[in-house]
Amino acid sequence: MLDAYAAVESDPDDEELNIDEIADEIARMLSRVGSKHAGRESTTRDMLEDMLLSLLVKRRSKVNWRDMLRRVLLDKFRRAKKTTWKKLSRRLPYLMPGYYREMWHDYPEIYLLLDVSGSVVSDEAVLDQFLAELMAIADLVKAKLRVVLWDTEVREVIDPAGRSPQELAQEIKRRALLYGGGTVIDPALRYYIENGGGRSALIILSDGYWNNYDKTLFAVAAAKALQAIYCYTGREHRELEQHGWITIPLTDV
User: Fold this and answer.
1) Percentage of residues in the chain having pLDDT higher than 70
2) How far from the centroid of its chain's Cα atoms is residue 168's Cα?
């Protein structure tokens, strides 16, 4: 289960807990989790883990973004398993037949929608550290990482295989110099909706300075993805959480 509390440091300056507010928040979480799992074959464990994840998101300001990104992605990929029939073992006949869980045969995918229009690609620390963390996670879960470069449109898709995070960051910076700038998120979301697999994770890395975006696209993309995460260095766009997104600020790079 997600060890949500292990990543959250206690704060002596926290305000006194209000029982009514806690009850209201639990009720809202139960409603959100219930709606999310409606019609699915979800276990009580699955729903409790989603509730703990919600608590972790609530305390995001006290959690290192690397820890949060790893917890969110690794938990989802770990739970993305299928149940198959287990035959009677000839070597161990005392084990009864039953169901067991195994990883899917196809490798998962991670789509990184990388905003190359502004401060993200110009901040060497942000880009280098984020790519290093995400590439390490992809390697750990044997995921295919696809880096989608976008500004006002999708410019190109990079396969980072064979590159170090630093080499990939330098290549992205060089290519970003050729683009026109501006920030329109909708084409990147449409690209994922049209091309992303149902077992893929979707991550946006941006400074968040875009306007007039289609909220429906965010909702459709989140519904299709195994997990949808918005990582930001500027505007937080907390409204995305209403459409199934987890938002993670990169505040300690």
Assistant:
1) 62
2) 20
What is residue 62's predicted lDDT score, i.e. its pLDDT? 47
Owner of token pair 């799992």: 37
- Total-model pTM: 0.69
241-250 b/e with 16+ CB inside 10 Å = b? bebbbbbbbb
Say which CATH superfamily domain 109-249 falls into.
von Willebrand factor, type A domain (3.40.50.410)
Distance CA 214, CA 187 (A): 10
Distance of alpha carbon 41 from alpha carbon 80, whole angstroms: 12
pLDDT in tens, 50-89: 555 555 555 444 458 888 898 888 877 765 555 555 555 5
Residues near 130 by beta carbon (within 8 Å), at least 6 away in sequence: 205, 231, 250, 253
Q: What residues does each domain of the chain span?
A: 1-8+17-63, 109-249
183 secondary structure, DSSP code: -
